[in-house]
Amino acid sequence: MFKDFYTQRGEYVVISAEQASRFAKGVAGDYNPIHNPDARRFCVPGDLLFVLVLTKFGLSRQMEFRFTNMVGADTPLKFSEADDGTLHVCDESGKGYLQVVRRGDITHDPAVVEAFARCYVAFSGKNFPHYLKPLMEQHGVMFNPKRPLVIYDSMGFSLKRLDGFSPGLTLNHSSLEVNGKRADARLEFSIESAGEAVGVGSKKLVVSGLCDYDADEMAAIVEEFYRLKAAYESA
């Protein structure tokens, strides 16, 4: 699963800028410039780390992911489980990038794990413009168009069961809490399978460098998003 997006080197996982960028665009539909291989502030998508945790440790009924640092290209990462069951993603020096708390039953069924991973990533990749643009417009703020910075802070979900479902995610509620030059965006979602509610979850994003909302600037950013999307899909 997802083996094309990382390289295993002994006990470490290494993700190149090209692998991370292909995952962002091809799997998540995420065209954030920060995931472009030539980006000055390049970082590996948090959703790729999420996928690798599920691949290596399975899917639990309750999981909470907290991202603590951004991962640069070619950083050797160790995925490990502590004595208390907490999962950690750290580099060779011990610097932490992701911490995962999990509870309840676990499944390692590849079909179930991959189905859930793909449906969440497809949902998560729609941060911008689908979810964030309406929120920012509503509150009269936006990120700096010259240095847009949206950070994946945390995510959690709870599932009623793990067997025999073909999950899909739907946004239930979204909110933006503005504090000076930064804002916390919360996206709450439901998880369904064949019309049955099988779980709920939420995601938190931090938007930095806020300025007043400018409709023309935002329109240009959205236009560039769709230009990049069209260019990737036609390549």
Descriptive overview:
- The structure is a single chain.
- This protein has 235 residues and is α+β, with helices and mostly antiparallel strands.
- It has a single domain, classed as Thiol Ester Dehydrase, Chain A (Roll), CATH 3.10.129.
- Helices cover 30% and strands 38% of the residues.
- It is built from 5 helices and 12 strands.
- The strands form 3 sheets. The protein has an 8-stranded antiparallel sheet with strand order 4-5-6-3-8-11-10-9. A two-stranded antiparallel ribbon has the order 1-2.
- The two termini are 24 Å apart.
- The mean pLDDT is 93.
Short description:
This protein has about 240 residues and is α+β, with helices and mostly antiparallel strands. Helix content is about 30%, strand content about 40%.
Using the alpha-carbon principal axes, give the shape.
globular
What's the alpha carbon Rg, rounded to whole Å? Answer: 18 Å
Secondary-structure content class: alpha+beta
Order of adjacent strands in the largest pleated sheet: 4-5-6-3-8-11-10-9
Number of strands: 12
Distance between the termini: 24 Å
What's the domain count?
1
**N-to-C SSE string, H for helix and E for strand:** EEHHEEEEHHEEEEEEH
Profile the largest sheet. 8 strands, antiparallel
Helix content: 25-40%
